[in-house]
TrEMBL record:
Residues 192-246 form the HAMP domain. It catalyses: ATP + protein L-histidine = ADP + protein N-phospho-L-histidine. GO terms for molecular function: phosphorelay sensor kinase activity. It comes from Pseudosulfitobacter pseudonitzschiae. It comes from the Bacteria. It holds the Pfam family HATPase_c. This is histidine kinase. GO terms for cellular component: plasma membrane. Gene3D superfamilies: 1.10.287.130, Histidine kinase-like ATPase, C-terminal domain. It is an enzyme of class 2 (transferase). Keywords: Kinase, Membrane, Phosphoprotein, Transferase, Transmembrane, Transmembrane helix, Two-component regulatory system.
């Protein structure tokens, strides 16, 4: 069955048609043989009835007188008739079952019992050619003037009828075989021709090599049949696929330029934000050149800020991926971030709630560059969302579970578009900045998690980095 299921449709359909023709031929042959058998049985019964009735009329007086010689003479003359040659044996007995005469006295002697011959004999109405025995036995009463005066037993040779039946059977088998073979071949050719569009369609679909080909117009069937509609529908689908592929190529080119613009915007965004703090540091140095501790603190800020800008340029050169072998994160990085956003806090008159629960002289085994970018972007977005006179907060805590950073603001809930940029990897919708998507990319690169919630009128964004290698004490 599995092998049959793997055959092509152009072979399975002719095989199915051939099987149905064989079934129909077998049924038709059976009906023909039954009709022939009924005709033969009728012929045999008619011959036997004529034979019995003729003998009854001719032998009735002789059987009454038990005249054996007259009975034998009559049987002998009857056996020499034309159609009666089918009767190979006829035996006449009296009403007691004693044999009076037989056409073959040596086989059935006179005055013997007829019961031995009548063991396998049947009545006239049950006489039939059963298809296995070439000799039939018939036992009928001998009726004369309305009463049974004896019995007649006969044997009929039906070998010619059996031969005729076998000949008819062989003719039917041969005829059916020839008809099935011819019709199967014709069906195979016709079905293969009808299925040629399907074969062509299958070839077009399997030999595309990444690009579907149109169905040849010359091979599309005429009219509006199912196969013609299938071919036209396939061509329409190929045209649609080609149109879509062309649109995707144009869109890819457009996205390439958009990505370049986003990269430029991201680079400007990441460089422009620290510049305000660095410029403040230079102004502080100019304003307090006589205070070494202020100059030293500002110089350290300049050093860390410039290193951060260097990291940003490295990120751009490395396809927007930070080098995770950067220096580890320290509490001083959070102090730098506080100084960097101070101009924005002052400009908007924001209330800043700052809590960094990381012990001094310790470092967190996370690259400082990407974490600074994450926190700076979240703080700038929080300042923008809070508006004038709002409230912004940061809580950073490093414990046995890892580093947790939460940025809050008193502004409205984060829009759906902004949430999509921060919480999912869905394609960026037109408009909007790249800061929140950059936060997500950097957090994912450090195997961190981002969560968002709204509680007590505050928007809270938490970034968590599970402890993988732990914190280490900084060595002086």
């Amino acid at each position: 069955m599995r092998t049959l299921g793997q055959l092509p449709l152009s072979i399975k359909l002719p095989l199915l048609a051939a099987a149905m023709m064989v079934l129909v031929g077998a049924v038709a042959s059976q009906q023909v043989l039954r009709a022939l058998a009924r005709v033969q049985d009728a012929r045999v019964q008619e011959l036997a009835q004529m034979h019995v009735e003729g003998l009854s009329v001719a032998l009735g007086p002789f059987v009454l007188r038990r005249d054996n010689w007259e009975v034998y003479d009559t049987l002998d003359r009857a056996s020499k008739g034309g159609e009666d040659q089918r009767m190979i044996l006829t035996v006449v007995a009296d009403d007691r079952g004693r044999v009076l005469a037989a056409t073959d006295p040596r086989r059935v002697p006179m005055d013997s019992e007829i019961d031995d011959l009548a063991q396998n004999a049947v009545a006239l109405e049950n006489l039939t050619v059963d298809g296995s025995n070439p000799v039939l036995r018939l036992l009928t009463p001998l009726v004369y003037q309305g009463r049974a005066v004896g019995q007649i037993a006969s044997e009929l040779d039906v070998s010619d009828l059996l031969s005729e039946r076998r000949g008819a059977l062989m003719s039917l088998i041969l005829g059916n075989a020839l008809a099935v073979s011819f019709l199967s071949l014709a069906g195979f050719v016709a079905i293969r021709k009808m299925l040629r569009p399907v074969t062509t369609l299958a070839r077009q679909m399997t030999e595309t090599q990444g690009e579907p080909h149109l169905f040849p117009a010359a091979e599309i069937p005429r009219g509006d049949g199912e196969l013609a509609r299938l071919a036209r529908t396939y061509n329409a689908m190929v045209d649609a696929v080609a149109t879509k592929a062309d649109a995707e190529r144009r869109l890819a080119e457009r996205e390439r330029f958009v990505a370049l613009g986003r990269l430029s915007s991201s680079l400007a965004h990441e460089i422009n934000n620290p510049l305000g703090g660095l410029l403040n540091a230079t102004d502080t140095i100019r304003s307090y050149p006589d205070r070494p501790e202020v100059v030293r603190q500002s110089a350290d800020l300049l050093d860390r800020g410039l290193r951060h800008l260097r990291d940003v340029t490295r990120v751009t050169l490395d396809q927007n991926r930070l080098d995770h072998e950067d220096r580890p994160l320290t509490p001083e990085d959070f102090e730098d971030l506080k100084l960097l956003i101070q101009p924005e806090v002052s400009r908007l008159a924001l209330a800043l709630d700052w809590s960094v629960l990381i012990p001094k002289k310790t470092s967190v085994d996370l690259a400082a560059g990407p974490v600074r970018q994450i926190v700076l972007n979240l703080l700038l977005n929080a300042c923008m969302a809070s508006g004038n006179g709002g409230k912004v907060g940061l809580t950073a805590q490093n414990n046995a579970c890892g580093l947790s950073i939460e940025v809050t603001n008193s502004g409205p809930e984060m829009p759906e578009a902004a949430l999509g940029r921060l919480m999912t990897d869905a394609p960026l919708s037109p408009g909007g900045g790249v800061g929140l998507r950059l936060v997500r990319d950097l957090t994912t690169g450090l195997c961190g998690r981002i969560s968002y919630r709204r509680i007590d009128g505050l928007t809270c964004v938490r970034v968590t980095f599970d402890r993988a290698r732990g914190a280490t004490d900084a060595q002086e």
